[in-house]
């Protein structure tokens, strides 16, 4: 964020306040939300394991991914069942 603030010629604190005023969330929360949105698409559209998806979107651990996913989506992410299993889709697969 300091780099973005420098480009905008404002302090990091001012940049953060203005960002939140305009977009309704802090720059950090925006980045987290975008990472989780991307992870939901990867979980839905690929066969990548959850750990690989977490690392792909820039989260450092499965624990961080799980906590952030739960905070933003409101439920835990579970891996989709194998294609031969006849169970309803998981919360991640429905998006």
Automatic annotation (TrEMBL):
According to the lineage, what is the superkingdom?
A: Bacteria
- On whether Transcription is a keyword of this UniProt record, the answer is yes
Q: Which residues form the HTH araC/xylS-type domain?
A: 1-74
Keywords of this entry: DNA-binding, Transcription, Transcription regulation
Per its UniProt record, what SUPFAM superfamilies does this chain match?
Answer: Homeodomain-like (SSF46689)
* Pfam entry (one): HTH_18
InterPro entries from the UniProt entry? AraC_XylS_family_regulators (IPR050204), Homeodomain-like_sf (IPR009057), HTH_AraC (IPR018060)
- Could you identify this protein by its name? HTH araC/xylS-type domain-containing protein
